[in-house]
Amino acid sequence: MRLFSLAPFLALAAALPAPGNGNGKPDNGQHNGNGGNGCNGKGNPHCQGGSTRPTITPSPMQPRVPFPSPAVRTRDCVVPVSGGDDSEAILAAMQSCNNGGRVVFEKDSTYTIGTALDLTFLQSIDLDIQGTIRFTNDTDYWQKAGFSFVFQNVTTFFKLGGDDVFIYGGGTLDGNGQAWYDLFAKDKLIMRPVLMGVDGLKNSIIADLKWRYSPQYYSFVANSSNVVFDGIDITGRSKSEHEAKNTDGWDTYRSTDITIQNGHVDNGDDCVSFKPNSTHILVQSMWCNGSHGMSVGSLGQYAGTFDIVEHVYVANISMNNASDGARIKVWPGSAASMSVDLQGGGGEGRVNNITFTDWQLTNVDYAMTITQCYGQKNATLCTEFPSKLTISDVTFKNFAGQASTKYAPQMAYFQCSSPDVCYGIRAENISVTSPAGAKQAFCFNMDNSALDVQCTTQNNPGEHSGGAK
Ligand SMILES: *[C@@H]1O[C@H](CO)[C@@H](O)[C@H](O)[C@H]1NC(C)=O
Ligand SMILES: *[C@@H]1O[C@H](CO)[C@@H](O)[C@H](O)[C@H]1NC(C)=O
Ligand SMILES: *[C@@H]1O[C@H](CO)[C@@H](O)[C@H](O)[C@H]1NC(C)=O
Ligand SMILES: *[C@@H]1O[C@H](CO)[C@@H](O)[C@H](O)[C@H]1NC(C)=O
Ligand SMILES: *[C@@H]1O[C@H](CO)[C@@H](O)[C@H](O)[C@H]1NC(C)=O
Ligand SMILES: *[C@@H]1O[C@H](CO)[C@@H](O)[C@H](O)[C@H]1NC(C)=O
Ligand SMILES: *[C@@H]1O[C@H](CO)[C@@H](O)[C@H](O)[C@H]1NC(C)=O
Ligand SMILES: *[C@@H]1O[C@H](CO)[C@@H](O)[C@H](O)[C@H]1NC(C)=O
Ligand SMILES: *[C@@H]1O[C@H](CO)[C@@H](O)[C@H](O)[C@H]1NC(C)=O
Ligand SMILES: *[C@@H]1O[C@H](CO)[C@@H](O)[C@H](O)[C@H]1NC(C)=O
Predict the structure, then answer these.
(1) Which of the 8 DSSP states describes residue 39?
(2) What are the phi and psi torsion angles at 243 (to 5°)?
(3) With contact defined as beta carbons under 8 Å apart, do 84 and 112 qualify?
(4) Which of 118, 149, 217 to mutate to test the pocket of ligand 3 (most atoms within 8 A of CB)?
(5) Ligand 10: distance of its center to the CA of 358 in Å?
(6) Exposed, middle or buried, 397 (CB in 10 Å: 0-12/13-18/19+)?
(7) 224 versus 17: which is more confidently predicted?
(8) Where in the chain is the domain with CATH 2.160.20.10?
(9) Bias regions of kind Polar residues — which residues (predicted)?
(10) What is the mean pLDDT of residues 318-334?
């Protein structure tokens, strides 16, 4: 009886797309559960035919945990454009389509957000962003109302968090940063919002979006786990004489199992930065231009805190026109000052098991950088008070290309505050040369035999402080 009554359902199920795959193709055994249509439109009057979900697969490395495989959603909420502040309508659509729906931002529409939005309630939802979402440039409002966090005074336009969120659509998030770049030139202490604030997000994918003109970092990823960023395109140069500053692509913080891949980043600060308590982070197949490189840190900035960055793997990177390539920056044991808006030192912790492999570099000032004296211009003072944050097990491997003329004939900088707190540093198969043809490096308190460069203790042409934040 039972078996008979089940049979028609089984037949129906076979005719439907495979669950979580959605494109009708059989599961090939590889992880491929995120493509297909985000809302199951066939015979479902609640789906309006948004864009197709991108299929996200890891390459060249596999992450520790498989990429999320979100279920197909069953209803759409299309956000109307009002011509004014669309924040309320956006919030309403997310509330109404939460738990199994998809929010659609229509192509060729520009939505305006002029109100800080707490989006940490998201649960099993797709955001199909085909149009443009632009933030207002009311610098007074955002400094008062933006979400602010203790870490480095980070402020965000919105905070996005929850579980099982899939964002895609080929659209744009525009931070409208020009007003901020110009204001920052007058006042270094203003609170510039981060474009994409992520706080407490799990098992989610953010893919195929353009991020433009962020006032500060493009994204801050905090308190999150198993989140994938794929195919994010970043650019946004200032149109005035005031440069866009501190425009990191990603800053990860108190997060684990984060993958960032296939990004195209044109910016003026770190391409990706691994801030305190970033563990099991995979960054791969990225193109970066004009940046400060892939940076661990800065860490140890705050006395009384314990910062951990470990199990980080950064592979298949094209790094162009950058001040640094692969970099680790740690504050020394005593207080130091980098600039008016950046002081620190004395914090504890560890940087451990970091791999940078298969990099192609052009016009990079230092291809590899380790400093355990960040912010301290007096090297004697740095060795007198070595860092309380250890650096161990760091591998740079298969680096090819050309450094810039800036520090020629040097192309790398390795400065430990003491060998007791800095060990297991390897540089293997390094063929990056300075324009003069040499691969000379500044090496201080290091085991030079593990470094495939020509070490010298002559710092040329003077100490390198390595950019901001
Ligand atoms: C945060 O901003 C305040 C006020 O501008 C400043 O005094 C403080 O040093 C900043 N703190 C950090 C950690 O950057
Ligand atoms: C603020 O943005 C609006 C619209 O995007 C623009 O017209 C205006 O010039 C901007 N203001 C400043 C100070 O940049
Ligand atoms: C992360 O979580 C902690 C603890 O719940 C909270 O205090 C903090 O505001 C959250 N966000 C950030 C960015 O630290
Ligand atoms: C390496 O990264 C480039 C982008 O810079 C990408 O085109 C290529 O497919 C990646 N290789 C692998 C094996 O993933
Ligand atoms: C790369 O950065 C340089 C400045 O460092 C800029 O002139 C160039 O246009 C950028 N290229 C791309 C493709 O963004
Ligand atoms: C990082 O993790 C360690 C160990 O769990 C903890 O003691 C420390 O407070 C954390 N630091 C931050 C900035 O969350
Ligand atoms: C080092 O990190 C990699 C991931 O980047 C991980 O696969 C490996 O197990 C870690 N090694 C140790 C000894 O923890
Ligand atoms: C590097 O910058 C120069 C101009 O400074 C530009 O011509 C070149 O295209 C840039 N490289 C890349 C890969 O964008
Ligand atoms: C650096 O610090 C040492 C030790 O405290 C001190 O003797 C020296 O004068 C300092 N050098 C400079 C240039 O300040
Ligand atoms: C050394 O690195 C180059 C690329 O920079 C790569 O083609 C080559 O296979 C590497 N050699 C070894 C022995 O890994």
Answers:
(1) B
(2) -65, 150
(3) yes
(4) 149
(5) 8
(6) middle
(7) 224
(8) 270-469
(9) 49-59
(10) 96
What single-letter DSSP state applies at residue 249?
S
DSSP string, 330-389: E--SS-EEEETTEEEB--EEEEEEEEEEEEEEEEEEEEEEEESSTT---HHHHHHS--EE
Name residue, tokens 């090496």. 443
- CA dist 80 and 235 (Å) reads 27
Say yes or no to pLDDT of 264 above 70: yes
Task: Please give the structure tokens belonging to residue 371.
Answer: 């400093």
Distance, C-alpha 254 to centroid of its chain: 13
Q: Which one-letter amino acid corresponds to residue 123?
A: Q
211 DSSP β-pair partners:
173, 234
CATH number of 270-469: 2.160.20.10
* C-alpha 260 – ligand 7 centre gap (Å): 17
- Tell me if residue 464 is catalytic: no
343 CB near ligand 1 (under 6 Å): no
Phi/psi-derived region of residue 246, left when phi > 0, alpha when psi is between -120 and 50, beta in every other case: left
Q: Would you say 453 and 412 are in contact if contact means Cβ atoms under 8 Å apart?
A: yes
Tokens of 404: 């810039």
Closest CA to 76 of 157, 134, 16, 130: 130
Q: List, for residues 439-448, the tens digit of each pLDDT value.
A: 999 999 999 9
Percentage of the chain beyond pLDDT 90 is 82
Q: Which residue has the tokens 């080929």?
A: 170
Residues 6+ apart with CB under 8 A from 6: none
> For residue range 23-37, what is the model confidence (pLDDT) as tens digits?
323 333 333 368 888
Its pTM surpasses 0.90: yes
377 lines ligand 9 (CB under 6 A): no
